[in-house]
Amino acid sequence: MDWGEQLSDLPVGELLRELTPQVLGLVVRRFRDFDAAEDAVQEASIAAVMQWPRDGVPENPRAWLTQVAFRKMADGIRSESARRRRETEVVEEAARVSESGLDAAPVEDDALVLLFMCCHPALTPSSAIALTLRAVGGLTTAEIANAFLVPEATMAQRISRAKQTIKASGIPFQMPNAEERGLGLRSVLHVLYLIFNEGYTATSGPRLRRADLSQEAIRLTRMTLRLQPENTEIAGLLALMLLTDARRHARTGPNDELIPLSEQNRGLWDRKQIADGVALLSAALPKASVGPYQLQAAIAAVHDEAERPEDTDWPQILALYDLLKHMSDNPMVILNHAIAAAMVHGPQKGLNLLDGLKGDRRIAEHYRLDAVRAHLLERAGDSEAAARYYRAAAGKTVNLPERNYLLMQAARLATMMGRT
Amino acid sequence: MKYILLMSGSKAGVDGYRTWSKKDIDAHMAVLTSLNRELAESGEFVATQGLAAPHEAKVVRGLREGIPITDGIFPESKEFLLGYWIVDVATPERAYEIAGRISAAPGPGGVPTNMPIEVREFATRAPQS
Amino acid sequence: MKYILMMHGKKGAWDEYAKWSKEDLQRNVEFMRGFNKELHDSGVFVDTKGLAWPQEATMVRAGNNGEPVTDGVFPESKEFLAGYWVIDVESAEQAYKIAARASAAPGPGGKPANMPIEVRQVLGSHNDLGF
User: Is residue A35 part of a domain?
Assistant: First the structure.
């Protein structure tokens, strides 16, 4: 049976994905072995998938899963001769747990601790993403592999190695202290943002599955916000995701071509989701000092609130990018700042700002620098140079829809100049 | 980041390969098999394929009256794709490192073949907008 | 049997493609999309990739100390892989027919480009290499 295909389609699948991080948290807390716990919980999930459709969902599904996972942990320990002494302890504990029903356990805290663990800075981004989707998201290995267009065995390895890294670095299963929590949370938000981005920008692969990644990121970020409701950066990230995702149906054309913001059919934007994002942001902004995700969300909100491209409040966007520039050294921020400056002060201003980037190694050879320069040159009236830079950008991007878009811009200008 | 690593050779090169001893061929393949296993273990492996001999290659140029126009004649100097790897790695340097390992696989007498391996990045997602 | 259908081009060919008109680009993209869909629908599709401009290609050789040696300079005559399809079909003839359709994709002015598409069988394991 292909669990990857089956799990999400079953009604039981939704429930399992919600319960997985809670159960995993419990098991890790009890047994302090993340690696084995993760395997045990996976096996319990598979057992549930097999039995619940047949026997009905148990009255306390979380307790059911936990008992099965505990039993598997006990079995695992039983088979290790070195840990024989603990075996009786564990078996007795499992018996106690199954009797108590587990309702007193602080499962939500455990889910948060789990999230911190899976996004720990010791892990590479791709490891953290894989592990988070699996342990916290409850996706199967096959589903995650599918989403990232790698073979299932490869993804299984990534998850396995991530778990080993956690084991080896001795990361304890406990809430980080106040000092560590800041850094830990930044890691968590970064991983969630990467997952969202992967889903949102998917241009190939089984479309529906990959789009689900954005939804998964939104779901996990909502969960994180529920666990830390006063944290404004989490709210900012969720708002950013909602405001960005609201545009998803407008950003690609019938041939998978990319449609930039200025040309999108705004009638296809999800206005309700935009309103939700704006409300979230409005509630968060006054609370604490503003962080980069809130700023990005605010920028997205300004774009999303414009009925037509020409209604866009560019001065406000420029002001927001001015602030964001100080918080983030991401070269894309600087590029977007230049575009905003051009919209407010004229294309030459933007072009001057771009000149300042020529020495920045991270961006100097990046296709987007050429693409933005082309766009500004066109606005400045230099169609010849603009077409040249569009073609240069097309030559540097590895992404086909992007390449097509850039070539079309060059072609459009060539037609305008009378050279087809 | 996903990369495709291309191994190519000329007809002459392939004919030369046919003269290798079985021991040398097995040694060459053992290194590549071992590399594949390593990539699987590190979670970087996406795919690998070997292609059939170049002298079986055909070129198709359009249709004439519904029939493909095929041709099997190539210049002696033409480089044929012999096989490729697709890897998913964190940095371009890692892709080059893997390519370097393929290139260093031993030839006759255990001497590294030093074949040039072409490395091309490709993408499956777009930038944000 | 699996076959790979490959489209190659020299640097000059890429530069030519970059100058195509909007209509020609659009027509070609639509054709490719339809072609890929047909391959999916008829159950022969295994894989397809379009690759970036060759200026991003790097040639790597084994170095002396285990450090790979990279080079980004290529002669004008070098053919670069532009993209490929891998299909699973009953016969070589079927592979050639499909290749012919890819080859006849519309080029400038909507005329069939008749690009040369190289067709080779894909092997299972190194024991199949047999050459």
Answer: yes
Long-range CB contacts (within 8 A, 24+) of A101-105: A101/A60, A101/A63, A102/A26, A102/A60, A102/A62, A102/A63, A102/A66, A103/A60, A103/A63, A105/A26
- Nearest Cβ partner for C18 among A255, A397, A407: A407
Which residue, among A340, A332, A338, A337, has the nearest Cα to A314 in the 3D structure? A340
Judging contacts by C-beta atoms under 8 Å, the chain B residues touching residue A368 are 127
pLDDT tens-place values along chain A, 420 residues long: 344 444 445 568 778 888 888 899 989 888 888 888 988 998 999 899 889 988 888 989 999 999 999 999 988 776 665 455 565 565 555 555 544 444 444 566 788 889 999 999 899 999 999 999 999 988 889 889 988 889 999 999 999 999 999 988 888 888 888 888 888 999 999 999 999 988 887 655 444 445 588 989 999 999 999 988 989 999 999 999 999 999 988 988 877 778 889 999 999 999 999 999 999 999 998 887 899 999 999 999 999 999 999 999 999 999 999 999 999 888 889 999 999 999 999 999 999 999 988 888 888 788 999 999 999 999 999 999 999 999 999 998 888 888 989 999 999 999 988 854
The C residues from 69 to 128 touching B (CB cutoff 8 Å) are 69-70, 78-79, 81, 86, 92, 96-97, 99-101, 103-104, 112, 114-123, 125-126, 128
Among candidates A124, A205, A259 on the partner chain, residue whose Cβ is nearest the Cβ of B124: A205
Contact A399 B121 (CB under 8 A): no
Indicate the residue of A153, A200, A259 with minimum beta-carbon distance to B40: A153
Residue-range domain boundaries for chain B: 2-50+76-122
Nearest to A24 by CA among A58, A56, A72, A57: A72
**If phi over 0 gives left and psi between -120 and 50 gives alpha, with beta otherwise, what is residue A256?**
left
Please tell me the distance in Å from C58's CA to the nearest CA on chain A.
13
Tell whether C108 is covered by a domain. Answer: yes
User: What is the domain range of residue A138?
Assistant: 106-169+181-228
CA B97/CA B101 separation, integer angstroms = 6
Which CATH superfamily hosts domain B2-50+76-122? Dimeric alpha+beta barrel (3.30.70.1060)
